[in-house]
Structures are given as structure tokens and as C-alpha cells.
């Protein structure tokens, strides 16, 4: 009685894993819409304007996990920079920019009326 040899599977026999499809965004595309001035409370807007005078104006490669990553300006121009002030713990932005970025849904809905 002869036993048939079981051939081990090789990498060539295995099906390649299907990579997850990601949306490709070409470089130079505009950033998603930022809140307009009428969607931001006057207090938060005043605070942002004051903070941006003190901003460190960092480039992308200068950012760390502890710096505010709020983008300012058009990424396609030389005048584009990131705030760079110390970020709030667990947030990507400084206190002033957190106040603009993370607004409760109810307050945004109320301002549109």
C-alpha cells in the first residue's frame, strides 16, 4: 500500500490577500471645507484671531504629537503653515482651535436658523 504524499502549500499556491481599497486623493486638492465665519461663535473667532498672531507657523515636518495641527492658508502656496502652539491633551489642536473644530451639533444647527 502506497501512501500519497501530501504536498505542503507554498506561497505560490496561496491566494493573495485582496488589499483594502482606499480613496486616492491627488496632491494639490483643496482641504475639506472649513467652518465659515458665520458658523463660528464671535468669541471663538476672536480667540482664534488672537492665537494666530502668537502661532509658531510650523511646516508639516516640524509638527509633533504635542503641537497644534490647525492648517492656515492655502496648501498650494508658500504662505501655508500650521499653528504649532501646544495642543490640548488628546486633541490635535490648541485650546482656541479646539473651540472652533469641535462644536456640538445643536449649536451648529441653531446658528444656521
Give structural notes.
- With 113 residues, the protein is mainly alpha-helical.
- It has a domain at 56-112.
- Helices cover 25% and strands 4% of the residues.
- The chain has three helices and two strands.
- The protein has helices at 42-54, 95-101, 105-112; strands at 71-72, 81-82.
- A two-stranded antiparallel ribbon has the order 1-2.
- Strand 1 and strand 2 (81-82) form a beta hairpin.
- The longest helix is centred in the middle third of the chain and has 13 residues, at 42-54.
- The radius of gyration is 24 Å and the shape is elongated.
- The relative contact order is 0.15.
- The model has no long low-confidence stretch (mean pLDDT 77).
Task: Provide key terms for this protein.
113 residues, mainly alpha, two-stranded antiparallel ribbon
Number of helices: 3
Outline the biggest β-sheet. 2 strands, antiparallel
- The run of helices and strands is HEEHH
**Beta-strand percentage?**
under 5%
Average of pLDDT: 77
* Sequence of strands across the biggest β-sheet: 1-2
Q: What structural class is derived from the secondary structure elements?
A: mainly alpha
Gyration radius, in Å? 24 Å
Head-to-tail CA distance between termini: 86 Å
Number of strands: 2
Low-confidence stretches: none
User: What is the 3D shape?
Assistant: elongated
Helical percentage: 10-25%
How are the SSEs ordered, and which strands pair?
Blueprint: H1 42-54, E1 71-72, E2 81-82, H2 95-101, H3 105-112
Amino acid at each position: 500500500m502506497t501512501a500519497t504524499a501530501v504536498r505542503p502549500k507554498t506561497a505560490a499556491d496561496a491566494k493573495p490577500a485582496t488589499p483594502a481599497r482606499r480613496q486616492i486623493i491627488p496632491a494639490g486638492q483643496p482641504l475639506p471645507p472649513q467652518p465659515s465665519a458665520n458658523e463660528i461663535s464671535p468669541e471663538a473667532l476672536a480667540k482664534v484671531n488672537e492665537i494666530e498672531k502668537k502661532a509658531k507657523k510650523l511646516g508639516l515636518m516640524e509638527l509633533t504629537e504635542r503641537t497644534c495641527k490647525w492648517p492656515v492658508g492655502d496648501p498650494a502656496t508658500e504662505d501655508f503653515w500650521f499653528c504649532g502652539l501646544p495642543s490640548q491633551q488628546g486633541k490635535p489642536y490648541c485650546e482656541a482651535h479646539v473651540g472652533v473644530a469641535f462644536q456640538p451639533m445643536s449649536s451648529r444647527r441653531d446658528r444656521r436658523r
